[in-house]
Amino acid sequence: MDRFSSTTLFPDTLSGTRDDLTEQLTILWEQIKAPLIVPLLRIAVFLCLTMSILLFVERVYMGVVITLVKLFGRKPEKRYKWESLKDDVEHGNSSYPMVLVQIPMYNEREVYQLSIGAACGLSWPADRIIIQVLDDSTDPIIKNLVSMECQRWGSKGINIKYEIRDNRNGYKAGALKEGLKHPYVKLCDYVAIFDADFQPEPDFLWRTIPFLVHNPQLALVQARWKYVNADECLMTRMQEMSLDYHFSVEQEVGSSTYAFFGFNGTAGVWRLKAIDEAGGWKDRTTVEDMDLAVRASLKGWKFLYLSALKVKNELPSTFKAYRYQQHRWSCGPANLFKKMLMEIIRNKKVTLWKKIHVIYSFFFVRKVVAHIVTFVFYCIVLPATVLVPEVEVPKWGAVYIPSVITILNGVGTPRSLHLIIFWILFENVMSLHRTKATFIGLLEAGRVNEWIVTEKLGDAHKMKSAIKAYKKPRFRFGDRLHLLELATGAYLFFCGCYDLAFGKNLFFLYLFIQAFAFFIMGFSYVGTFVPSS
């Protein structure tokens, strides 16, 4: 039998057609590269370098300020008047301010007992505190469980109110707003807010309320978050690194310099008068907490952050839950920036420097530039220069600036410095979603008001059992495959292959490693992250 020749398997006509197509594409690329691609890429490099410098200056400034605060700054008890509240023999408990504790929740089967129990365990005169559970649950079974839990605590003498609505208008902001409309709230001076997975220590109110009582200019006292599941997996360790920088640097610097920072939506105590004066809760964005904080600040109110006061909470432990959370946290601020820019500029109650701080530092650099430059520069533009060698990126922009920014971010969590490489790769992947969400917020596009409650698994024992239960998840194409991550990974891999073949340095290693990170996240699903310990 005659052997099959190459011409039999691949006829000359097909081979010639393939070669002609490759040659035509090469000619087309060369024709458009010089007049179109090169100028556009140079403009992109210039814009990205400019944004990198803005972010670099902001990070260095924050680093200098936090260093000075740690070395020479006065503690909150020294900057503001603070005296422990004492019993009044003549007036009894009526000398203590009335405190409302709000716990908004939505189908929180795993954590409702933890949050309600912690709130009911707060140390404060029993007749001077009201626990208000705002249950927007749509699952009748969960709603019944929450109601019975409130009744159980009520039978123990706790002044607890179980409030429900017949709709979810405004989501969390709507629930908090409706909660303040009840007649008994008029008796209250302050409101403490805790999300359903937050567990304050019994002395929380004793450590926060005195600041508000003795300093009438203060509207908010914010506590720090403490993560009960930070060591659960590698992804939660990465989140801890990002959030630790936010709390140990950004919040501390804002509180120490301009007495302004973004309310974290939970683990804080507000003066009710300040909420009313600022216009109350609004649901125009998905960051109702930041919205209220900015409006209250524009009214002249001051905020205080207590880094030593920590409240336990839970980090998202699945990639799906974390993606939804980051979309809300990135889209909301950008959308709020667009809606409040002119309001901030026209405000006459705050100083020019505070306006600049809020517009430039708080919003523009941290909420817009930081997300865009991370993805566009390090995952799109920089790899593109491999394909277009005519465009060069200076070493200070490609290596030195990002290295300094990374180090300044990483020092917030010293115990995880050995994971810094994983954190860089993780943040670059997440920057894809943050950038997309930022543009959605600025343009007020499709998912601008999307609100999906972050999934919670409960305490450590429940987490372990839940992880075991998820070892064999039911395959769902949309949940397991993330096309944007896979497409970006493919682009980086192609650039890496090109650099390996034609480049003269080791940049292809970064491209391959980052592409691998995008592929891992692109194929991820519940339970895929390897424990960090």
UniProtKB/TrEMBL annotation:
Coiled-coil ranges from the UniProt annotation: none
UniProtKB keywords: Cell wall biogenesis/degradation, Glycosyltransferase, Golgi apparatus, Membrane, Transferase, Transmembrane, Transmembrane helix
Enzyme class: transferase
Membrane-spanning segments: 43-72, 368-388, 400-426, 481-501, 507-530
Protein EC: 2.4.1.32
BP terms from Gene Ontology: cell wall organization
UniProt GO MF annotations: glucomannan 4-beta-mannosyltransferase activity; mannan synthase activity
Pfam family, one: Glyco_trans_2_3
Record membrane topology: Multi-pass membrane protein
InterPro entries: Glyco_trans_2-like, Nucleotide-diphossugar_trans
Every Glycosyltransferase 2-like domain range: 190-385
Places the protein is found: Golgi apparatus membrane
Catalyzed reaction equations: GDP-mannose + (glucomannan)n = GDP + (glucomannan)n+1
GO cellular component entries: Golgi membrane
Family: Belongs to the glycosyltransferase 2 family. Plant cellulose synthase-like A subfamily.
Name of the protein in question: glucomannan 4-beta-mannosyltransferase
Lineage: Eukaryota, Viridiplantae, Streptophyta, Embryophyta, Tracheophyta
